[in-house]
Amino acid sequence: MSAQAQPLLEVRDLRTYLHLRSGVVRAVDGASFTIQRGEALGLVGESGSGKSMTCLSIMRIEPRPAAVIGGGQILLDGENLLDKSLAEMRHVRGGRIGMILQDPLNSLNPVLTIGDQLLEALRLSYPNSDKADLRRQAAEALDRVGIPNAEARLQSYPFEFSGGMCQRVAAAIAMVRSPDLLIADEPTTALDVTSQAKFLGLLDELRRERGMSLLLVTHDLGIVAETCDRVAVMYGGRVVETGPTREILSQPRHPYTQALLRAVPHLDGPRMERLFQIAGEPPSIRAPQVGCAYAPRCDFAKDRCRTEAPPTLRYAGGESVACWMHAPECAPAAAVPAPARSKP
What we know:
By secondary structure, the protein is of the alpha/beta class. The protein is built from twelve helices and twelve strands. The two termini are about 25 Å apart.
């Protein structure tokens, strides 16, 4: 793909804050990344780094009134979604961007049949179609995600499906209107390993079949390695490193990304070796960030890291990193050594 091609989605300096009685929580505090057409981007990071709130902000379903998007841009084909009214966003959700939430049992309405929930989504795109035609499309959507006897299962309720089947139903609802972008927020959390593999394989197959882009939120770097074209690493509400999956997993530049990879267990390593853990705690998202958010946990941190926010440096291969160790005035003398290639 041409380097000059306009990305399908571009998030610029996004800031989403929660205004609570106890103070302001800076859930997303200047996140930036892009997704090209047909591309799968993995968004990774520890719990509390702002991944889910970023996704909710893109869909404009952040938990109001507490959550307020206080800055930045969310550009879909060059149009800023933050300039659209909530009525206009109804046509973007599902039509342009679909989303699979973490827990399918909570995202599906327990008092409506699966068919009713699919028909509700279809009516937004085809308001003049008759019910029989919409039911046929709904059954086809279930069949595409591997639900057996799809026509009859339209009459079923969510509690009549297993967790894995509910996740497939959620995927069918998210993709029934053929969106340009699918956001999957940790879609395999509630699934066993076998169901995870089947669902991710299905997701990848449907994405390639439709030429759809994918934003996959996950903690599992193994899933990223198998599924995603590029990776964005998030920490403290900001994206600290991005790049092609192969490059990020083999030669990470940011100390946090390096630590995440070191924490992945390896089957071919010593059986009695103690697993690596990142020292310290994630940053408080209640206080304004001063300097690099990762500095208190970083083995390479200098005084400047604690007082000045690092610039985001971009490389010819598409990688970017926000770290003083790689700034021109610091490199190469203080450059962070990349670890040996590893398989997550």
